[in-house]
Write a structure and sequence with these properties.
This protein has 589 residues and is α/β, with parallel strands linked by helices. The chain has three domains: 33-101 and 349-539, Glucose-6-phosphate isomerase like protein, domain 1 (Rossmann fold, 3-Layer(aba) Sandwich); 127-333, Rossmann fold; 548-586. 47% of the residues lie in helices and 10% in strands. The chain is built from 23 helices and 15 strands. It has helices spanning 9-19, 37-52, 56-62, 66-69, 90-100, 103-111, 146-166, 190-198, 217-224, 244-263, 271-281, 289-295, 321-327, 329-348, 355-369, 387-399, 431-436, 462-479, 483-488, 517-538, 549-563, 566-570, 574-586; strands at 71-74, 77-80, 140-141, 144-145, 179-183, 208-212, 232-237, 282-285, 302-303, 374-379, 417-419, 443-448, 456-457, 460-461, 507-512. Strands 1-2-15-12-10-11 form a six-stranded mixed β-sheet, with helices on both faces. Helix 5 packs across helix 15 (355-369) and helix 16 packs parallel to helix 20. The longest helix has 22 residues, at 517-538. The N and C termini lie far apart (66 Å). It catalyses: alpha-D-glucose 6-phosphate = beta-D-fructose 6-phosphate.
């Protein structure tokens, strides 16, 4: 049974005392899931299904209550798991394995600030970012009242956002800010840009946002094109204020701003006017106030977050400052409430009925028993067009690992390749492979009952036309089309095989009422916890990312060799030397 923190004052007091001071509790070695009786039982179940023959069509025919048994609700999201390659009894086997790997114990450790990111000796407390103000004083971790500190930063962000939105905060010439440009990379970009695109209908202050992440000069050139420097505000997002890509782009943006303001006659280019312009047009999300000040940003306009917030789990922290400006503090609070709704559901719902746990175990089922390598996420909402890209970092950076949290090799496959595009665009691109290819690709289909842009084509409700595809695709993937059905349509015999659909292609349907800030928070938290469940089964530290480091280190060594340092060039491998020589021979300055 999952743990639950009771809300009475006595237990709260005891909990607070327990959490005082540094938490460096030894992390138990991961349970080797593959050696447990519960894994063996799941393997036996898989073998039996294969032996009897997997047939979704038959399973639906045999069990009139299949949909009811495999449907769930969490918050205001509805989940239909009935088109997956499972039977109702599979859910108990999933729950048993979750218990065997001590998922409840690790969940409690995460929620209460134990340093489960043991390779970096850090707590993992993104759930604290969305706890209500009533939880102040209840989560003291490493001597820090986490909720109190979070709420203090949020209050500062909200005050700043209100000033920008109202026009009280202006650019150096007194004009209201009309465009916010967020400069960050990884979690400092993927989350904010995804949320901005998803919630565009809620932008109500006449302020738009642009996002610069790539060190490729083309990114900054295109994102600043057409901007008025007098009405542009840059937000530099870098916890340490040392991230190579972010600080390079920040310096280039600063140069652009000062040159454009001077060209317009808005400033005279003196040091004093330049400094004033930077303070009015740049703010930071960082904890390195010394570096922030060196850049020219007023440290009072820097909003911090903590080392227990990983980049890919940080969109609901100060990293989301651009979102608070564009959508307003009230909408940002709704966003946080959606996260918290799923946090509470995940922590307090029995595994057998916990759709978050079951979806995580379902991914393990496909990855480790069916040996699938990829997982499609297919949102039937154009506003979610950046959601698959966001999930790529969340899932693949978290669980794309071959070493367990105790340093031993993994004992099973890990980490699916997450990918996807919005429907119906994907239908005209890659659905062919999902329907008739040789690879089994489980897919999550996401849609919403209501749209902010209802339209009609004659008498046809266009949103219903759109949702017709959402419903049809999962039906086609599940039940397919037999050769006899194809023949009955009068298809020439020689073409029949090409028009057969085998079916038994698994999907999960996720259906919401509307894509609100609350619902988006729910969706993000859902996948955060699914990722955690998978990582726990595989014994992974899902919160470090050492795999990104080697390439960055080598880039620093190689860059001098590109144009001028022949000694550095000589130190490279033959392939790298050849590529750099091609560059030198063809670069036009």
């Amino acid at each position: 049974m999952p743990w639950k923190i009771e809300r009475d004052s006595t237990v709260t007091f005891r909990f607070t005392v327990m959490m005082k001071g540094p938490i460096n509790m030894a992390i138990n070695p991961p349970v080797d899931a593959t050696k447990t009786p519960e894994w063996a039982a799941l393997q036996k179940h898989y073998d039996e299904l294969q032996s009897e023959g997997i047939s979704l069509k038959q399973w639906f025919a045999d069990d009139a209550e299949r949909v009811e048994k495999l449907s769930f609700d969490a918050g205001d999201l509805h989940f239909d798991l009935s088109k997956n390659l499972i039977k109702p009894e599979t859910l108990q086997l999933f729950a048993d394995l979750a218990k065997a790997v001590k998922l409840d114990e690790r969940t409690k450790a995460m929620y209460t600030g134990v340093h489960i990111n043991n390779t970096e000796d850090r707590a993992v407390l993104h759930t604290a970012l969305r706890r209500p103000v009533e939880d102040e004083g209840k989560y003291i971790v490493d001597g820090q009242d986490t909720v109190k500190d979070v709420r203090e930063v949020l209050d500062r962000i909200y005050a700043f956002a209100d000033k920008v939105r109202s026009g009280e905060w202006t650019g150096v010439t007194g004009k209201k800010i009309e465009t916010v440009v967020n400069i960050g990379i990884g979690g400092s970009d993927l989350g904010p840009v995804m949320v901005y695109e998803a919630l565009k209908p809620y932008a109500d202050a006449g302020i738009s946002a642009r996002y610069i992440s790539n060190i490729d000069p083309n990114d900054l050139a295109e994102k600043t094109k057409g901007l008025d420097p007098e009405t542009t505000l840059f937000i530099i997002v870098s916890k340490t204020f040392t991230t190579l890509e972010t600080l390079t782009n920040a310096r280039e943006a600063r140069t652009w701003l000062l040159e454009e303001l001077k060209a317009k006659g808005a400033i005279d280019g003196s040091d004093a006017k330049n400094a004033e312009a930077i303070k009015k047009h740049f703010v930071a999300v960082s904890t390195n106030l010394e570096k922030v000040a060196e850049f020219g940003i007023d440290p009072n306009n820097a909003f911090g977050f903590w080392n227990w917030v990983g980049g890919r789990y940080s969109v609901d922290s100060a990293v989301g400052t651009s979102l608070a400006v564009v959508f307003g503090p009230a909408r940002f609070e709704e966003f946080l409430h959606g996260f918290h709704e799923i946090d509470e559901y995940f922590a307090n719902t029995p595994f057998e009925k916990n759709v978050v746990v079951l979806l995580g175990m379902l991914n393990v089922w496909y990855r480790n028993f069916f040996k699938v390598a990829s997982h499609a996420v297919l949102p039937y909402d154009q506003y979610l067009h950046r959601f698959p890209a966001y999930l790529q970092q969340l899932t693949m950076e978290s669980n794309g690992k071959s070493v367990r949290w105790d340093g031993t090799p993994v004992t099973s496959e890990t980490g699916e390749i997450f990918w996807g595009e919005p429907g119906t665009n994907g239908q005209h691109a890659f659905y062919q492979l999902i329907h008739q290819g040789t690879q089994l690709i489980p897919a999550d289909f996401i849609a919403f009952v209501n749209t902010p842009n209802p339209t009609k084509d004659g008498d046809q409700d266009v949103h219903e036309l759109f949702l017709g595809n959402y419903f049809a695709q999962t039906k086609a993937l599940a039940f397919g089309k037999t050769a006899d059905e194809v023949r009955a349509e009068g298809t020439p015999e020689e073409i029949v095989p090409a028009r057969v659909f085998t079916g038994n292609r698994p999907t999960t349907s996720i259906f919401g009422v509307a894509l609100t800030p609350f619902a988006l928070g729910e969706l993000i938290a859902l996948y955060e916890h699914i990722t955690f469940v998978e990582g726990t089964v595989w014994g992974l530290d899902s919160y470090d990312q050492w795999g990104v480091e080697l390439g960055k280190q080598l880039a620093k060594q190689i860059t001098p060799a590109i144009s001028k340092d022949d000694d550095a060039l000589a130190a490279q491998d033959p392939s790298t030397q050849s590529l750099i020589k091609f560059y030198r021979a063809n670069r036009e300055f």
